[in-house]
Structures are given as structure tokens and as C-alpha cells.
Specification:
The protein is an alpha/beta fold. It has three domains: 112 residues, Rossmann fold, CATH 3.40.50.2300; 64 residues, no CATH class; 231 residues, Hypothetical protein af1432 (Orthogonal Bundle). It contains 19 helices and nine strands. α1 runs antiparallel to α7. The chain is globular, with a radius of gyration of 24 Å.
């Protein structure tokens, strides 16, 4: 590959994300400037630039600069602008289209990428490890004859040790080639938790939230409830609520999640927050505190489930017909109770959130799935049950949203007055 890739990016976390992934997937040598002035100064130097990547706020100026005769051969990728003349991607955090656009712009074919030599010990710049708390695999440092061990699996990665490695002359650390993609994914997730949502467009906000959601599930399973996982959960919920507000219409949110190829577990929680917030805004007794509670429940109600296949089961019939093994079926059957047990131990859990989580399939004790819903369920639980039934239909419908048919079906199933009022509000949701 001839020439470097120049990144015009004023956000440090986004710059780190691009640099890491472009190196891993395309083999690009990436240099960064943080302003248009920096760009103008850089292109005047002798270094050969093959590609410039910039977000939409910078792109119009970048485009003008590249109209100069000496710079016309430089390819340009815009991030975030629709209908951009040239190469563009809507989301800088959506790795696959970003890499595809970069490869195309650089003239790198799929065959070329397949032929990229992957050394036995894959190099990753040391600063990337600063976002990690622990090592998910063995991490190595350069040795005289062979790599030496820098971090063992599950060993804490702290600033002091990284500084020591830096002083010893280690600008790069290494992971075994079989671990490289897993490590890069883990770094991507950690970066996503640190990005200010205000700098992201709606598509990027959803992508960042999904990575953070996935990371939290992994950490809760690995280390349980700690100050770190508590802070991450609270931040994730806040960011998912904020992301919902970037989509005034439900149809736009659904379309974006489909385009992002979001997994069911995340998609379900994200859309639940959208729908539950709408219901709380229009309930006579709804309040900000109750909205916070139901958004917390939307985030945690399936927290112990491990796969999308498990999360998509909402009845005894679906569970019996599933291809899950006996251990997985037991997990699904008991997941409401088990998730409630996590919530009870969570320091910042709103009062009563564990009860809604335990009863979110209509069973007071949290084991199994109910076909009928008794009068012993709280109003908040009923709101959540109806919202989940509605959201499951939306997700299964894909791009073909048919709310009228779903509302009619719900009116036949849920006939009591306390259900009817909530269904009436569901019908008012803006497509």
C-alpha cells in the first residue's frame, strides 16, 4: 500500500478507534491531525498521503483543499454525511462499511486483505491498552530472542505498569495472532464507553451503546457487581435514553437498528426504553422517577441471558420448540428470577425495580411464562409486559411495521380496563 492514511479528527477516542481498526483490518499506516489548520500544514509536507478520513463537520473544507492540483489524487472518505460525492459512511463506529470504504479508496481488494501477513505475535500500540482494566488474553512485550510476558490473562492493566513498560522502551505490545481480533474487539468496546455521546451522530450513538451493553454483560458475568460495572451500567442506561431522543420517530430508530445489524439483546433493550418512556410520558400517574425505574428495568430484565436466541423466547411453547440444550432452557425459564437477584444487589437500583424484573413475564415468582395476567401485578409491571409484547412484534416485523394489526391483536388478548388504558397510549406512538 502506497502512502499513509491521514485522519482529521478532533476527538481523541474516535481517533484511537479509527487508528486501531484501520491498522488491523486494512494494514493502513494512520497519522492524525485534529484541525483543518493541522491538515493544511500536513499536506504541504513531503509525506505521501493516499487517503484522508474526516467527519462531516470537517469534510466541506477538506473537499475544497483536495481540489488543488497537487492533491487531486488523494482519496477522501466522509463520515456522517448522506449523499456525499465520493466515499462515505454514515457511522464511523460501524466497522464493516468503514473498512470496505477504506479498502476501496486505497485500492485494497478482499484478496489483498486475505493475504495480509499476520505475524505469530500481532503488534498493538501500547497506548491502546490504556483503556483496558484487565487483560482478556496473554499480552507480550518484545524480548531479545522471543516475546516476554507483559500481562497474564485477567491481570489488571494499570497506568503505572504501562508507564514502566514505556520507560523500558516498549512502544508496542503483542498478542498471539489467534487472540488479536478478540483483543481489538475488547479495546473497541472500552473506547465506546468513553466517547462523549454529544460528538456522535444517531447511528454512531447506537453502535457505541451496543458495544457498551455487550461489554457490561461480559464484565458482570466475569467479575460481578463492582464500582466499575455499576458506573458502566449507569452510564450505559443514560446513553441509551439519550440515543432514543435522537430519533423522534420510532420507524427511524427501527430502521437504524436494522441497518446497524444490532443484535436482539441490545435492540430489545434500546427499543423498550423508547416505548416505555413514551408510555410513562402519557400515563396519568407517570413521573420522572418512574421513567428512570422502567428504563433501568428495560436494561436489566434479561441481563443473565447469554444469546439472542435465548432472549427471543417469550412463551413456554417457544421454549419447548427451541433448539436450546437443557442447561440453556433452564436459564431461560429462570432468567426473570435470576435477573431480579442481580438487580437486588445493584447499589443504584431504583426501589421496586427488582419486582418488575422478576414479574416481567407475568409470573410473580419469576420462573416460567404466564398465559394469563392476574390482578396481583403492579401497574408498572403491566406497563412493562405490554411494552415488551409490543416491542417483540416490532423487532420481528423488521422494516414492515404494522402497528394497527398488533394493537388489534393486543386488544383481543388483554381485555381488562387496566390493560386497555395502556394499549390506548401505545396506539398514539409516532411512527
Amino acid at each position: 500500500m502506497q502512502g499513509i492514511t491521514l485522519l482529521v479528527e478532533d476527538n481523541d477516542e474516535m481517533a484511537q478507534f479509527y487508528r486501531l481498526n484501520l491498522k488491523v483490518w486494512v494494514g493502513a499506516e494512520v497519522k492524525r491531525v485534529s484541525s483543518i489548520k493541522g491538515l493544511e500544514k500536513f499536506v504541504q509536507q513531503d509525506e505521501k498521503v493516499a487517503l484522508i478520513i474526516s467527519k462531516s463537520t470537517f469534510s466541506p473544507v477538506v473537499k475544497k483543499i483536495l481540489e488543488l492540483d497537487a492533491l487531486k489524487e488523494i482519496a477522501h472518505i466522509d463520515i456522517g454525511t448522506k449523499n456525499f460525492e465520493g466515499y462515505s459512511v454514515e457511522s464511523g463506529l460501524d466497522i464493516k462499511p468503514l473498512i470496505q470504504s477504506c479498502a476501496k479508496a486505497l485500492g485494497v481488494t478482499a484478496s489483498d486483505m486475505a493475504k495480509l501477513e499476520v505475524p505469530e505475535y500481532f503488534p498493538i500500540d501500547l497506548p491502546h491498552f490504556a483503556v483496558l482494566k484487565t487483560a482478556i488474553c496473554r499480552v507480550f512485550k518484545k524480548g531479545k530472542t522471543r516475546p516476554g510476558l507483559a500481562f497474564e490473562v485477567d491481570e489488571p492493566i494499570n497506568r503505572e505498569k504501562l508507564l514502566k513498560l514505556k520507560k523500558e522502551g516498549h512502544d508496542t505490545l503483542f498478542v498471539h495472532k489467534v487472540d488479536r481480533l478478540r483483543m481489538v474487539h475488547n479495546i473497541n468496546q472500552e473506547i465506546a464507553t468513553k466517547i462523549d455521546m454529544e460528538v456522535l451522530n444517531p447511528a454512531e450513538a447506537l453502535a457505541a451503546n451496543e458495544m457498551a451493553h455487550e461489554l457490561l454483560q461480559y464484565k458482570l458475568k466475569k467479575v460481578g457487581i463492582t464500582p466499575e460495572t455499576t458506573a458502566l451500567a449507569n452510564k450505559s442506561i443514560k446513553n441509551m435514553v439519550a440515543a432514543s431522543k435522537k430519533f423522534p420517530k420510532l420507524k427511524k430508530l427501527m430502521a437504524r437498528l436494522i441497518k446497524n445489524k444490532a443484535g436482539y439483546l441490545f435492540k430489545h433493550s434500546q427499543v423498550m426504553m423508547y416505548v416505555c418512556s413514551h408510555l410513562m410520558d402519557h400515563m396519568e400517574w407517570g413521573s420522572e422517577e418512574q421513567k428512570k425505574t422502567i428504563n433501568f428495568v428495560a436494561f436489566f430484565h434479561d441481563i443473565v441471558l447469554e444469546t439472542d436466541e435465548q432472549a427471543m423466547i417469550h412463551s413456554e411453547e417457544q421454549l419447548a420448540a427451541s433448539r436450546l440444550n437443557s442447561k440453556e432452557k433452564e436459564l431461560v425459564n429462570k432468567h426473570a428470577q435470576m435477573s431480579a437477584e442481580v438487580v437486588v444487589k445493584f447499589p443504584s437500583a431504583p426501589m421496586g425495580a427488582d419486582v418488575i424484573v422478576r414479574q416481567h413475564h407475568g409470573v410473580p415468582h419469576g420462573v416460567g411464562f404466564s398465559k394469563t395476567y392476574g390482578g396481583n401485578l403492579s401497574p408498572m409491571t403491566i406497563v412493562f409486559i405490554l411494552a415488551e409484547d409490543f416491542v417483540d412484534h416490532l423487532i420481528n416485523s423488521g422494516a414492515d411495521l404494522d402497528i394497527d394489526t398488533k394493537i388489534a391483536e393486543m386488544r383481543e388478548r388483554f381485555t381488562t380496563q387496566r390493560f386497555k388504558k395502556i394499549i390506548d397510549i401505545l396506539e398514539t406512538i409516532t411512527l
